[in-house]
Amino acid sequence: MSDPVLVAVAWPYANAEIHVGNLTGSYLPADIFARYNRMRGRQVLMVSGSDAHGTPIMVRADAEKTTPLAVYQRFHQSFLETFQKLGLTYDLFTSTHTKNHFEVSQQIFLALKQNGNLYPDQELQWFSTAQNRFLPDRYVEGTCYICGFTNARSDQCDNCGNLLDPSKLIDPRSKIDGSRPELRETEHYYLDLAKLQTKVQDFLKLRESYWRPNVLRQSLGQIEAEGLRGRPITRDLEWGIPVPLEGWEDKCLYVWFEAVIGYLSAAIEWGSLKGQPDAWKTWWHTNDVRAYYFIGKDNIPFHAIIWPAQLIGAGTAFDELRGEPNPKPLAMPYDVPANEFMNLEGQKISGSRNWAVFALDFMSRYDPDPLRYYLTANMPETRDSDWDWEEFYHRNNDELVATWGNLVNRVLTFAYKNFDGKVPNPGKLEEEDLELMRQVDDGFRTVAGELESVRLRSALSEAMRLATEVNRYLDITAPWSAIKTDRDAAARSIFTAIHAIDSLKILLASFLPHTCERLHTFLGYHRPLFGKQSTSQVGDALGTHTVLTYDTDGASGFWMPSQIEPGRALVQPEPLFKKLEPKIIEEERARLGEFKG
Ligand SMILES: [Zn+2]
User: Fold this and answer.
1) CA-angle at 3, arms to 382 and 296, nearest 5°
2) Which residues have C-beta within 8 Å of that of residue 445, sequence separation ≥ 6?
3) How far apart are CA 342 and CA 4, in angstroms?
C-alpha cells in the first residue's frame, strides 16, 4: 500500500470563475484524497494548472478587446486565490502556457508520430469568408445533430455530452459576428484511434471491476457500441502550442490534446522546480504507481479514451526523444473517479447567467471548512446533486456545529477548566470506555476503506457517525454532573472523550483541514498535521507564470488512533465553527442571478 500516488486534477479552463459545482466535481475530492494519502505516509504528487489555450479564451479576448494571454492570466490569478483559501494542496498548480509544457506536448506529438499513430488528412472546417480565417471548435455554434440542442459548440454538445464532428453541425453560426460560415478543406494531423482501439479496450477491461459505472459507460461502453475513429489533433489557430513540424508552424495542437499532457508536464516541472529533474519518474515510470484522475463527467471521453490512447501511442518514444538512457513507457491511469454535476436550487449552474455560487464570493462571507463539509456530504459521486441554501444552513448547524463542533468545544473547555488545563488521568478504564475506544479505533479501518475506493461521501458520513457515538457515550457517562460527586469517573470519561476526539481529528482532517489543524493545537501538539501552500513566480522563454506549490514540511503518516497521554497540557479552546442565522437562507437566495462574478 506504499505505492506512489499521482493525484491528477482536471485543469480549470481559464475563462470563468470557479463555482461550487467545479469544486465538488473534481478539485475538492482530489484534495481530500491527496491529504488522506499523505496521512497514510504515501508518496503523493497532486498536479494541475490553468488550461490557457483554445477558442473560448480567444472568443472572450475578442469580446473584451484584449489578448488571450491577459484573459488567461486574470483567471489564473483568481484560481490561485481560490485554491489557497479553500486549502487545495496542489504540489504544483501551473499552467499550459509554459515553455516546459510546450516542449513536453510537442514531444508527445512527435512520439505518437514516430510510432505511426498519427496521420495527416484533409478535413472540412468552417471558414469565415468575412474574416478570411478558419473557425474551429467554439468559434462556431449550431444545432447538435445527435440530440437537437440548438446551442451546441461545434466540437462538443453541452446537452448530450457527445463529442461532435464539426462539419455535421446543423445551422452553424460564427461566434464572432453571427454570420454563417462555409465548409472548406484544410489539412490536419489525426490521432489514429482506430489503430489504438484494441489496446485502449484492453486497458479499460483491466479496470472494469472497480471503475464507476458512468465512466465505463462513456468509455468501454461507447467503444463497444461505436468503435473509435481518428480524431484531428491540430487546429488552424495562432493561440496555442505550434505543431512541431516544418511547414506546420502556423497551426496549433488542439487544446484538448495538449491539456491532458499537462498531468505529465506538470510532474516534470514540479521536479525541476525542486532541483530534482528526474523526480517525475517516480509517478510516471513506476509500474505500481496508482494514478487517479479527478474530473467531472463532461471530461470522461478525454480521460478514459483519448488520454490513455495518447499514452499507449507514445510508448517509450517519449523517453527516447528526451534522450533518456533507459526509455520506459508512461504510467497508465489507475482510476478515473469522475463525478456527476451539482445543480443549484434545482437548476443547472450557469456562470454566465450568474446562477452560481462562486467560490471566492462564498469565502468572503463563510469559512472554508463548512464549504468543504457541505460539498463532500453532497458530492455528486453517483448521480447529480443539488446545492440548496436551506440544506447548507441545516448541515452547518445540525451536523458540523451540533454533532462535531459542540462535542469538541464542550469536552475541551470542560477539561481545561476542571483539570488544570491538562488531559486528565483516567485511572483504570471501564468496559464502556474501552468499547468507545474500540469503535473509534475501528474507524481507521472503515473510513480508510471508503477513502481507498474514493467514496468520499460515505467516508465522511462514517466519521460523523463515530462523532455521534462519542456524544452518546457522554450522554450516558455525563461527566458534567459526575464532576460534583465522582471526580474520578468524570476524569475517566473526559479522558476517553479526548482520546476519541483526537482520533476523529485524524479521520476528519482531510475533509476539514483548517479546523482539524486548530483542534490539533488545542490538544497541545506542536508538529502540524499539514504543510504550507505558497505561490512564486517562474520565468521561462515565454515570460513568467505564477505557480502554487505545497510543502509537506514532513507532515505525513498521521493515520493512526490517538496515543494521547494523561497530563498533556491543553491550549485554551475556542469554537471551531460558527452557527448560522436562519436569515442567510433568504439573503443568499436573493443574491442568485444578481451577483456579478
Ligand atoms: Zn447534443
Assistant:
1) 25
2) none
3) 31
Task: Tell me the per-residue pLDDT of 83-137, one tens digit each, with 9 for 90 and over.
Answer: 999 999 999 999 999 999 999 999 999 999 999 999 999 988 999 998 888 998 8
* Extended beta strands in 192-285, E state: 231-232, 234-235, 252-253
- 346 CA → ligand 1 middle, Å: 21
Please state the separation of Cα 482 from the chain's center in Å. Answer: 47
Residue 135's SS3 state is coil
Give the E-state strand segments of 365-462 in sequence order.
385-387
Query: What 3-state DSSP class applies to 171?
Result: strand
Given a cut of 50, whether residue 394 has pLDDT beyond it is yes
Distance 160 CA to ligand 1 centre (A): 4
pLDDT at 596: 46
**Residue 54: all three cell numbers together:** 483554445
Q: How confident is the model at residue 336 (pLDDT cuts 50, 70, 90)?
A: very high
- State in Å: Cα 442 to ligand 1 middle: 48
List CB contacts of 286: < 8 A, sequence separation 6 or more: 3, 4, 331
State in Å: Cα 350 to ligand 1 middle.
18
Cα 164 to ligand 1 centroid, rounded to whole Å: 8
Q: How far is the CA of 450 from the centre of ligand 1 (A)?
A: 35
Give 552 Cα–ligand 1 centroid separation in angstroms. Answer: 44
Cell of 351: 456562470
Please state, for a pLDDT cut of 90, what percent of the chain lies above it.
Answer: 90
- Whether the pLDDT of residue 594 is over 70: the answer is no
Give the Cα separation of 118 and 131 in Å (integer).
30
Region of 543 on the Ramachandran plot (φ > 0 left; ψ -120 to 50 alpha; else beta): left
